Amino acid sequence: MSGYVATLPEAYERSMGRWSRLLAARLLDVLDLPRGAAVLDAGCGTGALAEAVAARDPAARITGVDVSEPFLAAARARVPGATFRQGDLVRLAEPDAAHDAAISLLVLQFVADRTAAVAEMARVTRPGGLVAAAMWDFVGGFPFLRAFADGIAATEPDGEAFRARYLGDSVGSPGRLSALLEGAGLEGVAERDLAIRQDFADFDDLWQPWLTGQGIAGAYIAALDEARRARVEALTRRAYLAGAPDGPRSFVAVARLATGRVPRH
């Protein structure tokens, strides 16, 4: 993974993990997996998707793979009935056709060889099985993070490079995920939006978890000196407040979901 920090699961849960939980539930509303399915959670992180699958179908056979051992430990504690192991998505240790579905939730943006990762997901899925990938549309579908990235680009010496890394290669932009699935030879590929809404109690509810250095924004903020961090905090606060007193806010985020089936022939 590039530009992404995933070492502190509890901190991650307070920052981006809360978004992942909401999206996992929305994703399963759409996918409607068959009961008892063998599901590969490709890039399982702290187990948001695995937990959602297990809650809906205790008979599901869930395998999670991730590069981060601390995140895997959190996932094991969260979903004790699932199997979790460390691995690289571009070289999965799973046998051919071992799963009914392979799902990647909010991961492909940070995989160096996305083509290889999707090909591996297809390889380990049975003929007729489902391959699905979802990723935030950072450019057009995540307004608050877009405002944050634009603010960084306007005020910080390395801001343009940060925004380019965050937004310039957004695999969640329309058409990107479906192209990856089609390139892997999947059939019936379709793409759609998934929208969720995240609530915050106040500005600190958003900002404080970012100071732990998790994720792209957190890693950037943690690397700043005190003066620059204060400047970034001030511009982020202005974006959050939007001219109103501090307090609850609710932000929409849109992910793109692409699905396809492994050919039967």
UniProtKB/TrEMBL annotation:
<dbReference type="InterPro" id="IPR013216">
    <property type="entry name" value="Methyltransf_11"/>
</dbReference>
<dbReference type="GO" id="GO:0032259">
    <property type="term" value="P:methylation"/>
</dbReference>
<dbReference type="InterPro" id="IPR029063">
    <property type="entry name" value="SAM-dependent_MTases_sf"/>
</dbReference>
<keyword id="KW-0489">Methyltransferase</keyword>
<dbReference type="GO" id="GO:0008757">
    <property type="term" value="F:S-adenosylmethionine-dependent methyltransferase activity"/>
</dbReference>
<keyword id="KW-0808">Transferase</keyword>
<dbReference type="Pfam" id="PF08241">
    <property type="entry name" value="Methyltransf_11"/>
</dbReference>
<protein>
    <submittedName>
        <fullName>Trans-aconitate methyltransferase</fullName>
    </submittedName>
</protein>
<feature type="domain" description="Methyltransferase type 11">
    <location>
        <begin position="40"/>
        <end position="132"/>
    </location>
</feature>
